[in-house]
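tokens incoming
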């Protein structure tokens, strides 16, 4: 894994982004996807990020125990599992170059979804209420989370479309991502994306996740979320283009 202090420092930035995302700024998760893919390689980064995401889920979940329920999670799960299995099959069939482009495509798609929600809210609201949107969101979310750990924006938008109160939405999201990430462990292990070496690397990066959660909770009350999210969308757009055409 990493022996270069400079690269390790950059990887820690990605870990901090994972923590901040779990604290409420979900869009920044796209940044961690791109950074880890650049440093560790596209396929290896998928397995490396998963234990960090689960650690962040476990740290964030207790705060939302009183909010939301499991019922919406079970409703979304069948389509999500179908997407996960398709993503798992594809990840096992492609090389690093194709994985790099696939991850870039996933991030670019998530950027487009975020931009659509912000620029065309009325159109997005009609789309979100259409028949089959839940199935599409679940399957796309499952595919994206298996291939790139990048399902956050699509799933978040699905819950927003249900017009749920903010805390209830966060509670359902915390349950959903904890369950889905746990389901992905054996699939990543089967592809040898989670190994002893990758878990040792996780130990180096775990402090970044803790710092990110603390920083995210501090930032969420001080930084206008709309401004912060637009900065992330722009950064992720440029980074996705780099993955696609570098």
């Amino acid at each position: 894994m990493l022996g270069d202090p400079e690269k390790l420092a950059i990887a820690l930035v990605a870990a901090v982004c994972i923590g901040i995302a779990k604290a409420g700024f979900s869009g920044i998760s796209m940044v961690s996807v791109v950074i880890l893919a650049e440093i560790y390689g596209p396929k290896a980064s998928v397995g490396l990020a998963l234990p960090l995401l689960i650690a962040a889920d476990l740290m964030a979940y207790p705060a939302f125990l009183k909010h939301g329920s499991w019922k919406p999670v079970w409703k979304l799960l069948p389509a999500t599992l179908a997407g996960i299995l398709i993503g798992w099959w594809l990840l096992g069939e492609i090389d690093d170059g194709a994985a790099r482009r696939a991850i870039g495509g996933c991030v670019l798609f998530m950027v487009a979804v975020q931009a659509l929600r912000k620029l065309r809210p009325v159109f997005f609201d009609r789309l979100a209420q259409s028949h089959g949107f839940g199935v599409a969101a679940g399957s796309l979310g499952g595919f994206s989370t298996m291939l790139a750990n990048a399902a956050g924006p699509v799933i978040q938008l699905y819950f927003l479309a249900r017009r749920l109160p903010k805390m209830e939405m966060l509670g359902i999201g915390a349950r959903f991502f904890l369950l889905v990430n746990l389901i992905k462990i054996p699939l990543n292990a089967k592809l040898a994306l989670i190994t002893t070496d990758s878990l040792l690397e996780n130990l180096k990066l775990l402090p970044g996740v803790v710092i990110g959660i603390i920083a995210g909770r501090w930032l969420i009350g001080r930084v206008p979320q709309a401004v912060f999210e637009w900065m992330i969308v722009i950064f992720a757009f440029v980074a996705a283009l780099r993955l696609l055409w570098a």
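note: Residues 5-245 form one domain.
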